[in-house]
Amino acid sequence: MSDLTPTDPIRTDPSPTDPSPTDPSSTDPTPPEPAPLVWHRVHPVTPVVRGWTVIAVLFVIVGQQTVNGLPEGDNLLEGDRWWQILLGILAIGLVGLAYSALAWRMTTYAIDDESVRLHQGVLFRQQRKARLDRLQAVDIVQPLVARLFGLAELKLEVAGGADSGIKLGFLKEAQAQRLRNELLALAAGIRVGGPAPGASASPDVEGTPGGVAPGDGVDASDTLALVAPEAPEQPITTVPPGRLVLSLLRSGATIGLVLGLLLLVGLVIGTRELSVLFTAFPAVLGFGGYLFSRFTREFNFRSALSPDGIRLRHGLLETRSQTIPPGRVQAIRLTQGLLWRGPDWWRVDVNVAGYTLSADGSDSNSVLLPVGTREEALTAVWLVLPDLGADDPLAVLDEGMTGLDAGEYFTAAPRRTRILDPVAWRRNGFAVTDRALLLRRGRLLRRLEVVPHERTQSLGLQQGPWQRRLRVATFTVHSTPGPVIPTVQHLDEADAGLLMDTQARRAREARAHAAPEQWMRTDAAARPEPADG
């Protein structure tokens, strides 16, 4: 096996006997071909980082089977079976490690000015290409085992579907950080070229990022690190661990966990059967697992603003560093539970094009603020939408967050809908500003959803049998997949129909005047040149 390091390029140089496209003596009128791509491998420790999960899953399965068999007196580890099971786990783990090593050998990636390419697969080869002009977000993820080796995984979220992103892992943490800076610069429209400070000058070569030509003995990613420094950032919000713990204790999951434990204790006392503990254990474990997962995902949550986007950092066991470029957020949602009313805490979630819910239904990638004060929640909204398009944006948002009935800005559902929604009918309503559509709902769990006009995907009206009888309808804005589903229920059918027509026109006009996605290039072009002298 080759002793190739993660920074050793796999070069595809042309043969020395091939005529050079830039040779002056050549009479071929065809334009010169782009320089060949420089291919790289991920870190050699990657098989270890990925392969250990096979052994962990097997231990979990054995432990679960042992616990389930205890009520019947069947101990899976009784007698000499424990070492046989241990040998079996080690054998399967070695097979998994060998397969991970082969997968590492077959994985290579390359980066140019327009895209990121990834070749991978053992039995079925995959060749993936992510266009940088479609880049939605760039994340650096460090699972617990990867952190022990100083490694990180680079995740590129690209518009185009649930499986359109690319994962480059695992890389050295510093290398992953440098690649993220370069990709964000290229996606923003900045062409990074020229030699690194202190390095010998070299011509800017098209087809290779950072002006590194194949065959010159320099790894492209290392040179890019010098010519694409990390953009400065301004810290915005930090969530203290104590506040996070208190917010979880005031959540519905904690109430469910406490009620479940009380019910379980009551059943054990009433039946005097310990087997009830094993029957109800999965339900209690589900509530506890959800709370623990929320705590580990949102621990040490910090947000900052930089020229390349909104930076989010969080995580206890698995740390994640996200960068969401400006203008990629499709919808915003502010929520406040009943037990959060006293300290006036709010949670802010967003839909980001390219982000989808995880397989377990978690939305940690789409959290802009897990818990914060009203001022911090409004600051999070302004990070995404600096101009709400209203003369008094604070009054509009305040009416949307806590208001009831029709007010100065909101149109509310009619009184006759109280039979359909006796608790929250006074909260159902909408408001329109020059920049966004605001939808509010929920009495026990307050919700305010904000959708910029240009981010409207499509619109829908729904009317059930009882709604037709009461002449009301439910209005929905279709957004990209995510935790936010902008909806307002039981509007007067005349108001809903008018909103449908006017919002479609506003969305069309807003998209026609929307700025290009390569925001930093636009800003640079608009910046005046310094005067001579």
Explain what the structure shows.
The protein is built from 13 helices and 22 strands. It is α+β, with helices and mostly antiparallel strands. Among the domains are: 240-298; 327-512, no CATH class. Helix 1 (46-69) runs antiparallel to helix 2, helix 4 (173-187) crosses helix 5 (220-227) and helix 7 packs antiparallel against helix 8.
Topology at a glance:
Blueprint: E1 9-11, E2 38-40, H1 46-69, H2 81-105, E3 108-111, E4 115-120, E5 126-131, E6 135-142, H3 144-148, E7 151-158, E8 166-172, H4 173-187, H5 220-227, E9 234-238, H6 241-249, H7 252-271, H8 275-298, E10 302-306, E11 309-314, E12 319-324, E13 329-336, E14 345-352, E15 367-373, H9 374-384, H10 393-402, E16 411-412, E17 429-432, E18 436-441, E19 446-452, E20 458-462, H11 465-470, E21 472-478, E22 487-492, H12 493-512, H13 519-526
Antiparallel strand pairs: 1-2, 3-4, 4-5, 6-7, 6-12, 7-8, 9-10, 10-11, 11-12, 13-14, 13-19, 14-15, 16-17, 17-18, 18-19, 20-21, 21-22
Helix pairs in contact: 1-2, 4-5, 7-8
Please give a handful of descriptors for the protein shown:
alpha+beta; seven-stranded antiparallel β-sheet; 13 helices; disordered N terminus; disordered C terminus
How many helices? The count is 13
Strand content: 15-25%
Q: Which stretches are low in confidence, meaning pLDDT under 50 for 5 or more residues running?
A: 1-22, 194-227, 518-533
Profile the largest sheet.
7 strands, antiparallel
- What is the 3D form? globular
Radius of gyration: 28 Å
Helix content: 25-40%
Number of DSSP strands? 22
| Mean pLDDT score | 78
SSE class: alpha+beta
- How far the N terminus sits from the C terminus, by CA atoms, comes to 60 Å
Neighbour order of strands in the largest sheet: 8-7-6-12-11-10-9
